[in-house]
Amino acid sequence: MVRRGARTFNITYNNLKTFEELGVNENIRRAIEELGFEHPMPVQEEVIPYLLGNKNDVIALAQTGTGKTAAFGLPVLQKIDAENKAIQAIILSPTRELCVQIADDLKDFSKYINALHVVAVYGGADIRPQMKAIKHGAQIIVATPGRLVDLINRGVMVLDEVNNVVLDEADEMLNMGFSDSINAIFEQLPDNRNTLLFSATMSRDVEKVAKSYLHDYKEIVVGSRNEGAEHVNHIYYLVHSKDKYLALKRIVDFYPRIFAIIFCRTKIETQEIADKLIKDGYNAEALHGDLSQQQRDLTMQKFRQHHVQFLVATDVAARGLDVNDLTHVINYGLPDDIESYTHRSGRTGRAGKKGTSISIIHIKEKWKVKQIEKQIGKEFIDGELPKPEEICKKQLFKVMDDIMKTDVDEDQIAPYMADIMRQFEYVDKEDLIKKMVTVTFGRFLDYYEHAPEIEKPVMGKNARSERDGQKMRGKVSNGRRKHEAEAGYKRLFINLGKSDGFYPGEIMQYINKHVHGRQDVGHIDLLQKFAYIEVPEDDAQKVMKALNGTTYKGREVRCNDADETGHGRSNGRTGRGERGGKTMRTSRRDNGERQGRGRRNTHEDETDWRSLIGGKPFKFKGEEPDFNEEGWARRRPKKK
Questions:
Q1: What is the pLDDT of residues 293-338, one digit of tens each?
Q2: Is this structure's pTM higher than 0.70?
C-alpha cells in the first residue's frame, strides 16, 4: 500500500522485478549479487526508485527483516559522489549495535565503489578514533543521535553538503528519548535534502517528526499500519507470577530445536533469568546495558553464530541484533507499550519463514493481550503448558534423531574400536541402547519425574471458589484460610514468622539445612510471629525432630504438631504487643465479638491486620471484612 497525502492505494506485485529495472547501477549490483541478492523485496521495489530522485521524502512502515537496510542503503550509495570527501549522507539508528550493523552492510554493498568511505560513530567507545576517521574523509556517517550531537558540538561534523538523511527505527529512537537530539541534528542540516524515515509503527511521535522535517512525503506500508509481522503466530500462557520461570523451562524444553530471544523488562531480571537457565544446564547468555561493550559484542557474535541457543535480553540491548532464523521470541512478561511488543515479535518470522511469539503472563497482564490484539490485527492463542510426558517424548525423539544423524569419522575412531568392542562384548544391545539414552536423556527424565505442578489461574466471578477447591500445595498464605492440611499432609507449627525474617525462601533453606535428604513441603502459612508448614504425614515426625530445639538468629526454634495445644499465640503471651494472646481474645469477647459472627476462638483464625489496632478494643460495623484476596478488603453482602 502506498499513501500520498490524503490518497491511499494498494500495490500488487504481479511480476518479479530486478535490481537493474529499479535503476541500481552495475557496481552495486555486482556486490549484492555476490551477497545472494536475486530479486528486490516489496519495500525495496517502492523505495529504491523513488529515493534515486531528488527531494523525494519517504516514510516506510515495515517490520524488521523486510529488507529495509538495502531499501535505503542502495540509493544512498548510488547518489554519493566518491570523489568528494565531504559528508553527503547521515543515517541515524537508536543503538550502537544497529549502527555498526548498518555500516557493515553499506560497506559490503559498496565493495566495488572506489574511494567511498562509511564511518560508524556511537557512544560507549573512544571518540578520538571516530573523529580521526571523519577528518580523513567519509561520505556516509552512520550514527547514534547522542554521539552525532557531541561531534557536531565539537566542530568535527560539517553537514553543509548532506543531501540524504535516514532515520532507521525512528519509533524506537523516540521511545528511547532521542527527540531533542534529533531536533538538534535537523537544525544543522540543509533544507535541500531527501529525508527517509523507517519505522515499524506509526506512533504520534513519529507523525510529529514527519510533519516537522519531511515535505510532501510518500508513505509506503508493507502489510498494514502498526500491524504485526505476517508470518508470526502469537501465543500466551497464563500462569501465577511465582510459576513464570517454571513455565519458561517447560516451553523451551518442549521445542528441542528452538533458537530464541527471551525478552525481560529490566536489566536485573534479565541477568537473573539468564543465570537460572545457565545453572539449569541451558545454553544461554544475558544481554543488557550493564555489560561492557566488549561483553555485549562477544555475546551477540556468539548468538549470531548459533553458539548460544537462548539470548536473554532487554529491549534496548537487542535493538541492533539482526538474526534471520530465530524460531521463537519469548516475552517473559509483556512490555508497557504495544510498539515494543511489535518490535519484539518482528524479530522472528522473517524472510518468509514462520515464527512464534510466546508471552508468559499473569492475570494482571491479561488486559494487555486484548490491546495488542486490537493494534496488530491478530488474535493470540490461549496456550496450555505442555505436560511433562509430552516434553520427555519430544526430547527423546531429538536424542534419537541426533544419534541417527551423527556422522562417524571411521579413521578417527578406528584406533579405539578394539577396546570399545571388548568393553561392550557381553552387553545386550537393548541394555546398551537404554544406557546410552539414559546418559543423554536422563536430565529431563529426572527433572520431570519430580516436576512441580503449574496451575493455570482462574479468571472471572467463580475464580475464588474454584481456587478454594484446588490443591494448595506449594502456595504461601498471609491471611485467613481454612486451616486443614491437604490429604496426606500434616500441618506443623514453627515459632518463627515474618518479624524474624522467616520468609518462604528462608524456610526452605532452614529445612534443607537440618533435614537430611530431599524434603517435600506443601502449603506455607506465613504470619507475623510464627508460621505453619505442611509436610507429608510420613515425614512429620522426622521434620519436627530435626527442627525442634535448633537455633535461628539466636532464637530457639519450636516445631510441633499444629493440632496440639500449648503453642502459637496462646502460649502464655498475654502482653499488648502479641497479637492473639489470651488477654486480647477475652477483651474482644467482652466487646461484642461474639455477636452474630460465630467466630472460632482458636489461635489459627487470627491474621496480621489485627496488629494495626494495637490491642485496643474494637467493634465492626456490619460484617467483618475479608482481607484474603491479595491485600484487597472485601465485605460479604449484607443479609436482607
A1: 788 888 988 998 899 999 999 887 776 566 778 899 999 989 888 8
A2: no
**Long-range contacts, 24-32 (Cβ 8 Å, 24+):** 24/48, 24/74, 24/78, 25/78, 27/112, 27/113, 28/74, 28/77, 28/78, 28/109, 28/110, 28/112, 28/113, 30/111, 30/112, 31/108, 31/109, 31/110, 31/111, 31/112, 32/70, 32/74, 32/109
**Around Cβ 309, how many Cβ atoms within 10 Å?**
16
Tens of pLDDT, residue by residue over 65-80, are 667 889 999 999 999 9
* Cell 467482652 -> residue: 590
Give the per-residue SS3 of 370-408: HHHHHHHCCCCEECCCCCHHHHHHHHHHHHHHHHHHCCC
C-alpha cell at 602: 482458636
CA angle 65, 67, 70 (to 5 degrees): 140
Distance CA 61, CA 70 (A): 15
Cell representation of residue 528: 507475623
Instruction: Identify the residue whose cell numbers are 515474618.
Output: 498
The three cell numbers of residue 302 are 556468539
Angstrom distance (rounded) from CA 229 to CA 200: 10
Place of cell 530522485: 53
**Contact 262/248 with Cβ under 8 angstroms?**
yes
The DSSP bridge partners found for residue 120 are 142
Residue numbers of the chain with a pLDDT score lower than 70 = 1-16, 63-66, 201, 222-230, 319-322, 350-352, 459-483, 565-640
**Spatial distance between the Cα atoms of 195 and 191, rounded to a whole number of angstroms:** 10
Fill in the amino acid letter for 362.
Answer: H
Close Cβ partners of 121 (under 8 Å, ≥ 6 residues apart): 99, 127, 130, 134, 141, 142, 143, 144, 147, 148, 151
Distance (Å, rounded) from C-alpha 128 to C-alpha 291? 22
Alpha helices in 485-581 (DSSP H): 504-514, 540-547
